Automatic annotation (TrEMBL):
<dbReference type="InterPro" id="IPR019917">
    <property type="entry name" value="RutF"/>
</dbReference>
<dbReference type="Pfam" id="PF01613">
    <property type="entry name" value="Flavin_Reduct"/>
</dbReference>
<feature type="domain" description="Flavin reductase like">
    <location>
        <begin position="12"/>
        <end position="157"/>
    </location>
</feature>
<dbReference type="GO" id="GO:0052874">
    <property type="term" value="F:FMN reductase (NADH) activity"/>
</dbReference>
<dbReference type="InterPro" id="IPR012349">
    <property type="entry name" value="Split_barrel_FMN-bd"/>
</dbReference>
<dbReference type="InterPro" id="IPR050268">
    <property type="entry name" value="NADH-dep_flavin_reductase"/>
</dbReference>
<keyword id="KW-0288">FMN</keyword>
<keyword id="KW-0560">Oxidoreductase</keyword>
<comment type="function">
    <text>Catalyzes the reduction of FMN to FMNH2 which is used to reduce pyrimidine by RutA via the Rut pathway.</text>
</comment>
<protein>
    <recommendedName>
        <fullName>FMN reductase (NADH) RutF</fullName>
        <ecNumber>1.5.1.42</ecNumber>
    </recommendedName>
</protein>
<keyword id="KW-0520">NAD</keyword>
<comment type="similarity">
    <text>Belongs to the non-flavoprotein flavin reductase family. RutF subfamily.</text>
</comment>
<dbReference type="InterPro" id="IPR002563">
    <property type="entry name" value="Flavin_Rdtase-like_dom"/>
</dbReference>
<keyword id="KW-0285">Flavoprotein</keyword>
Length: 163
C-alpha cells in the first residue's frame, strides 16, 4: 500500500514526544529551532540524535557550527516552543528567554528540564532531513514538577509522580 504524506503525519501525530529547543552558536552565528524528533542513541559514548529539515532557515548555521544544545522544555514553555517553531526572526526568538553559555559555546536555556551540550560528530541525510548524531559533552539537569509533550498536534503537561 502506498503511504502518502498525510497518512504518515496523521499516524505520527499519535506518537507523543518531548519538546526541545535546539540551539547553536559559532562562526556561522546563533540560531535555534523547536524539535520533537530527538532520540537517545547510546550511553557509551553518550549520544543523541536530532532530525533537522534541510529546508529550515537554520540548517546552514547548524551545518557550519557543528555544535548544538538540546534544551528539553518544561510545562509553561509552550510560548517559547511556538516562537522557535515559527517563522519568527532569530533575535526575537532568543529575546524571549534567559540563556547561559554552555561548554560548546551554544546557548543553554534557563528553566529547561535538561540541557545537553553536544558536538555534532556525524550527519546522515534521509529524504528531506539530516539526522544529526550528537556526542554529549555536558549535561545540566533541573527536574521540574511538570514536563511537556507534543501529542495529537497540541501541547500536554506531564505530571511527575510523587515519590
Ligand atoms: N520531524 C519534523 O520535521 C517535525 C516537524 N514539525 C513541523 O511542525 C508542523 C506542525 O506539526 P503538527 O502540528 O504535529 O502537525 P502535522 O500534521 O504537520 O505533523 C504530524 C506529525 O508528523 C510528523 N511530521 C510532520 N512533518 C514532518 C516532516 N516534514 N518530517 C518528518 N515528520 C514530520 C511529526 O511527528 C508531527 O508531529 C509540521 O507541519 C512540521 O512543519 C513538527 C513535528 C516534527
Ligand atoms: C512542536 C514542533 C516540533 C517540531 N519538530 C521539528 C523537528 O523535529 N525537526 C525539524 O526539522 N523541524 C521541527 N519543527 C519545525 C521547526 O521548528 C521549524 O521548521 C524551525 O523553526 C525552522 O523554521 P524557519 O525555517 O522558519 O526558521 C517542529 C515544530 C514544532 C512546532
Amino acid at each position: 500500500m502506498a503511504i502518502n504524506q498525510q497518512t504518515f503525519r496523521d499516524a505520527m501525530a499519535c506518537v507523543g514526544a518531548a519538546v526541545n529547543i535546539i540551539t547553536t552558536d559559532g562562526e556561522a552565528g546563533q540560531a535555534g529551532f523547536t524539535a520533537s524528533a530527538v532520540c537517545s542513541v547510546t550511553d557509551s559514548p553518550p549520544t543523541l540524535l536530532v532530525c533537522l529539515n534541510r529546508a529550515a532557515s537554520v540548517w546552514p548555521v547548524f551545518n557550519h557550527n557543528r555544535a548544538l544544545c538540546v534544551n528539553t522544555l518544561a510545562a509553561g514553555q509552550e510560548g517559547l516552543s511556538n516562537l522557535f517553531g515559527g517563522k519568527t526572526a532569530m533575535a526575537e526568538r532568543f529575546a524571549a528567554a534567559q540563556w547561559q553559555t554552555g561548554e560548546t559555546g551554544c546557548p543553554r536555556l534557563e528553566g529547561a528540564l535538561a540541557s545537553f551540550d553536544c558536538h555534532i560528530n556525524q550527519v546522515v541525510s534521509v529524504g528531506t532531513h539530516d539526522i544529526l548524531f550528537c556526542e554529549i559533552k555536558a549535561i545540566i539537569h533541573h527536574p521540574a514538577p511538570e514536563g511537556l509533550v507534543w501529542f495529537n498536534r497540541h501541547y500536554h503537561t506531564l505530571m511527575r509522580p510523587a515519590c
